[in-house]
Amino acid sequence: MTAPKRLTDRKREAIIQAAIAEFRANGFDITSMDKIAATADVSKRTVYNHFPSKEELFAEILNQLWARVTAEQDVAYQPDEPLRGQMRQLLMAKMHTLGDENFLNLARVAIAATLHSPERGQDMVARMNEREGGLTVWIRAAQADGRLKPVDPAFAAHQIQGMLKSFAFWPQISLGLPSLEAAMQDQVVDSALDMFLACYQLA
């Protein structure tokens, strides 16, 4: 049984959700800590007790986005298993993340804020480059086993994930389209796998 959240944790989460809503609606620069406090239905003092500045509150939103991006299911490379099944498991985990509305809201806030501040964008990219994703690690292992061509693993991982994002991330972020239905998720993942393996799999 999961223990109930403490009041202070619930207030912190309310503040973060209020900040996401306000940043998304009004932008980072216009949004005030007063407005965030009002939206979260807490005092301004409570907001500052949790987050000493608006920048630190935004940094926490970026941290949550980063945590979701890097929480994709890590599938350890299995030398005796077909490549397609292993990769499909990884890509479906990524697709699940891309279809999560909380993740999309975080991404919208982060992208909107970084458009007005290149420094924030550079910081976000630097964070994302600090840790290799599970797919990059898996591709490197498959290459070491002689089953994939020796392309840069990070490039190959970025390439196939870009195929997913062109259907399941950017249209939702830029055009407000709904997340993909399950059948379309399967189609996108399977077609991306077809192209990737046709290009990089060794006989």
UniProtKB/TrEMBL annotation:
Residues of the HTH tetR-type domain: 9-69
Family annotation (InterPro entries): DNA-bd_HTH_TetR-type_CS, Homeodomain-like_sf, HTH-type_TetR-like_transc_reg, HTH_TetR, Tet_transcr_reg_TetR-rel_C_sf, TetR_C_Proteobacteria
Keywords recorded for this protein, A-Z: DNA-binding
Pfam families: TetR_C_7 (PF14246), TetR_N (PF00440)
Domain of life assignment: Bacteria
DNA-binding interval(s): 32-51
Gene3D superfamilies noted in UniProt: Homeodomain-like, Tetracycline Repressor, domain 2
Keyword DNA-binding annotated: yes
PANTHER family: HTH-TYPE TRANSCRIPTIONAL REGULATOR RUTR, TRANSCRIPTIONAL REGULATOR TETR FAMILY
Protein's name according to its UniProt entry: TetR/AcrR family transcriptional regulator
Taxon lineage: Bacteria, Pseudomonadati, Pseudomonadota, Gammaproteobacteria, Pseudomonadales
